[in-house]
């Protein structure tokens, strides 16, 4: 069965590091490096994003990823989509997408800029990010769920 086949695949959990850097305004007061437990976890951005105005940079890094592996990155939105000042923010509840090319070509090198006003960052980042790769027959995995507990009305049910 598939379960038996999958149970025989060796696995290795990856280490994820989130780097949050102030850009403008009072959204984030100081640079932060959040080292998640091996394999990932849940990050409540309420602890990092303090102010309601301005921008900050956020980057997700895999610090024990074996280069040359065929990395796949998936995003499952955990936030409601919204229109703010005639611009759409977020993918909407349970929308998912493969973002491997974006991650490898852009985000692994340059942080994403997000904005605190009207909780735009929650709509853009909120949800689960899954990282997977196979290297020498070993499945490498990590996942992080980003949320902000101050805004449950934005989170999907």
Report what the structure shows.
- This protein is mainly β and 157 residues long.
- It is 13% helix and 44% strand.
- It has three helices and twelve strands.
- Strands 1, 4, 6, 9, 11 and 12 form a six-stranded mixed β-sheet that branches.
- The relative contact order is 0.25.
Please tag this protein with its features.
157 residues, mainly beta, four-stranded antiparallel sheet, six-stranded mixed sheet
* Terminal Cα span: 33 Å
Give, in order, the helices and strands.
Answer: HEEEEEEEEEHEHEE
Fraction of helical residues? 10-25%
Number of helices, where a helix is a run of at least 4 consecutive DSSP H or I residues: 3
Q: How much is the radius of gyration in Å? A: 16 Å
Major β-sheet, in short? Answer: 6 strands, mixed
Quick take:
This protein has 157 residues and is mainly beta.
Write the layout of secondary structure elements.
Blueprint: H1 2-7, E1 11-13, E2 16-25, E3 32-35, E4 40-44, E5 54-62, E6 72-77, E7 82-84, E8 87-89, E9 96-98, H2 100-107, E10 112-115, H3 120-125, E11 127-135, E12 138-147
Parallel strand pairs: 1-12, 4-12
Antiparallel strand pairs: 2-3, 2-5, 5-10, 6-9, 6-11, 7-8, 11-12
């Amino acid at each position: 069965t598939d379960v038996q086949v999958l149970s025989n695949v060796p696995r290795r959990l990856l280490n994820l590091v989130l780097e949050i850097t102030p850009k403008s305004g009072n959204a984030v007061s100081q640079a932060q490096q959040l080292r998640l437990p091996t394999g990932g976890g849940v990050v409540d951005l309420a602890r990092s994003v303090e102010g309601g105005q301005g921008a900050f940079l956020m980057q997700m890094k895999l610090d024990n990823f074996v280069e040359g592996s065929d990395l796949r990155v998936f995003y499952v939105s955990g936030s409601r989509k919204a229109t703010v000042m005639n611009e759409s923010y977020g993918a909407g509840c349970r929308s998912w997408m493969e973002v491997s090319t974006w991650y490898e070509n852009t985000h692994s090198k340059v942080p994403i800029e997000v904005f605190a006003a009207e909780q735009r960052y929650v709509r853009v980042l909120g949800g689960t990010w899954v990282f997977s790769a196979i290297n020498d027959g070993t499945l490498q995995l990590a996942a992080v769920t980003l949320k902000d507990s101050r805004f449950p009305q934005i989170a999907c049910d």
